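S.,

Sequence below, as promised.
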Amino acid sequence: MDPSNPSAMIRALLPKTPFVLKTALLHSLRLSSTSSKWDLKTELIVRLIRDFISSSKPNPVSKQQAGSLKDPGIKGRMWISKVTLERPEEDDVRQELVKAIDALRTGNEKYTVPEITPVEAEWTGYRAEVDAKSPRPDLSEEQHYEELMKEVTSDVTFLYFHGGAF
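The prediction came back faster than expected:
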């Protein structure tokens, strides 16, 4: 429901008229459980919001997941430069990981030794003098990185790891 659209607001509230009248009457007669604690306006707002939330039909998980899979793309006030760090030839990192895990073992725990794979990452930075809906420029990833570095004003770098299945 778009609050700036009066007809949508009327269509949403019109069927709730009996509910609003009942709430107002019970509050006025001090028969509601909150009439001694809330004023009429508060009670109407809270009960209407609760009614809207509880009477809406829950979406199936598949619909919720489909909604979360929509990629809005890269746009706005940010530089994004994608990079892939290739898999190293040596196995030192994995050997150190296995040593650390084995040092923490307390019994017969079993685990699968992970494969070493390429790491995908993004350099992210502020992009000045564009509006929030500006599309990403059509440049190579190297050019994106160069443009990002032109706007860097500090030596600070954040290393951010996030989880998720891609």
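Residues 40-55 form the longest helix (16 residues).

Coffee later?
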